[in-house]
Design goal:
Oligomer: homodimer
Structural class of chain A: alpha+beta
Number of strands of chain A: 12
CATH architecture of the largest domain in chain A: 2-Layer Sandwich
Number of helices of chain A: 10
CATH topology of the largest domain in chain A: Ribosomal Protein S8, Chain: A, domain 1
Helix content of chain A: 25-40%
CATH superfamily of the largest domain in chain A: Malate/L-lactate/L-sulpholactate dehydrogenase, NADPH binding domain
Strand order of the largest sheet of chain A: 2-3-4-11-5-6-7
Chain lengths: 374, 374
Amino acid sequence: MMTFGFNKLQFLTNPNSMLYSYSTLFQFTKNVFIKMGCSQKDAQLATTVLLSADIRGIDSHGVARLSGYVRLWEAGRINTQPSLKIVHETPSTAVIDGDAGLGLVVSPFAMQVAIQKAQQCGTGWVSVKNSNHFGIAGYHAMMALDYDMIGIAMTNASALVAPTFSIEKMLGTNPIAVAIPAGKQPPFVADFATTTASNGKLEILQRKNEEAPLGWVQNNEGIPTTDAAILKKGGSMLPLGSDREHGSHKGYALGSIVDIFSAVLSGAAYGPWVPPFPAYVPMPQNMPGKGLGHFFGAMRIDAFRPADEFKAHMDNWIERFRAAKPIDNQQKVLIPGDPERDIEALRMKDGIPLLAPVMNDLNSIAIKFGLAEL
Amino acid sequence: MMTFGFNKLQFLTNPNSMLYSYSTLFQFTKNVFIKMGCSQKDAQLATTVLLSADIRGIDSHGVARLSGYVRLWEAGRINTQPSLKIVHETPSTAVIDGDAGLGLVVSPFAMQVAIQKAQQCGTGWVSVKNSNHFGIAGYHAMMALDYDMIGIAMTNASALVAPTFSIEKMLGTNPIAVAIPAGKQPPFVADFATTTASNGKLEILQRKNEEAPLGWVQNNEGIPTTDAAILKKGGSMLPLGSDREHGSHKGYALGSIVDIFSAVLSGAAYGPWVPPFPAYVPMPQNMPGKGLGHFFGAMRIDAFRPADEFKAHMDNWIERFRAAKPIDNQQKVLIPGDPERDIEALRMKDGIPLLAPVMNDLNSIAIKFGLAEL
């Protein structure tokens, strides 16, 4: 299991985590996708998307999820040879049937369709059904940046979140990402769950046996709690805003919009019917659509004003906001995307830390597929 | 001033407020817009948009603002005979120069352009510069419903909100509205400021001399406070999420996206340079764009799937969410748009309550223009 090869760069302060180089994890992950039946090209793409989470510090959405994808594939819920089809379209829109493929493969295809539509008529909007988890929303939104476009990506997910006034899990953490190009400045990249905190952050607290701040979760009676393991006891996550007085109805509305754009527009399953990520959880009954849903948008900057003019103003916007008077000189104002870019620079240099349970998980996949352990 | 004519339907529990019929307020407001130099048609439209706030219970954005519009017009900052022009376009996009017109008039024009673009190529997206306050975002988004389209509306506004980690007012309350058609069910209509609470709610507490919940505002040192009048003492509003631990960086990102889509895409003023609503506040120096900015979207439902199919699923979505298990049987789960629709039904029947200061304000306008007092 935990062998100490050349690819362990160093221990982190946490003795249960070790650093792996991007290329080591890339090769390992790609081999797993190939063993699952993906083509070379799809395995390369799925790995790039999955690892973009690890590089950017969103550890819950990277290789830590690889074993989950494997189990979904074993359960026959992921098709690694999907035939991706546009099933409905207009000059600026499309609906894509993901044929139960990996969201990591379906989504870049859908985003490319949105980009092509935008090249033709200014903007492109694609809703996707019959897909699976797509990694981090930010990766897909950022695809638009190379084309001088604004990129938008969102997805629904299995229900963990209770609407305002409810104790029933009805929505996923339903993230939204928006990537906006700038000139000299790095791009503006917002990528966030429509809940107070992401499920990944909750899982980390749970693993460390620590408490969650009040406002993240509630128990099965709707009473706020600091128990980070409350989801296993009938509790639920709270929409961004935490409670009615602090605007949770806005977080609930945002999560609902993501669900409707991703799934009701496309024909995917929505609300409490979204297929669960853990393969051992039975599928919901009477599903009103197929698989997970995503929604992508691309807007050509020069469909609104000349791109260089826009970018100069984005630089001005970013510089002005960075210079906003801080509460405390130790912590300057950040632009969305700053923290992830800093982590990316660090991890591409020093390596990606994996916790012992994640390493064990990956090595058990290696054994299953006859691959070299990490 | 407060004369008791036939149009005062009854006192509310608050002895300082009286009820006026919609038609009374409509005629009064329309006459004011005509006195300001609007055409009959524009006065009719501006009144319809403005009063849609009063009907729906968003009192801060309705006739309570009329005197503010009058003062902006007196200061030469509103052009009541604007020449609205599309200054840039593609099949699915346009930028409109509002010619310093009333946002109440510019915005329905812009939304109509978005709708026409959607009729042609599936979706339409319009960014607007050189405009003014546009009333409630929900009105504009809801225009799309009649065409079996999803409507989206957002606007920037003068800076009241500090980004996460900052004490400087950099963003407006920058609302987002999304209207989604259903079948038998009423439409889904979300319309919310990207702050914890709207400025209107804060003003109401201030007027009543009541405290705000912690998490709505901070003082000039960035310390959370319950002082509802703190904005007058160097304080600032907080983005949705309230603090970093509860996701205020997400509210800050949302408000920023609204600002960029509305103003950096169009060429309006953005961030701290947005023109202030009170006419006595001097205009910012070195403005990087013209006036306020808005952003509108229209997406034809049948650009994604047959409209009747979509609507049947929206009915199912709405019915399932309404039936979500409540915390307390006294308060069922609401669908975005429910509270406003309930208030609308009540106010169209019983009348619209106005507080004494608002009545006084309106009557001083009447005197100024030689109109009959309310």
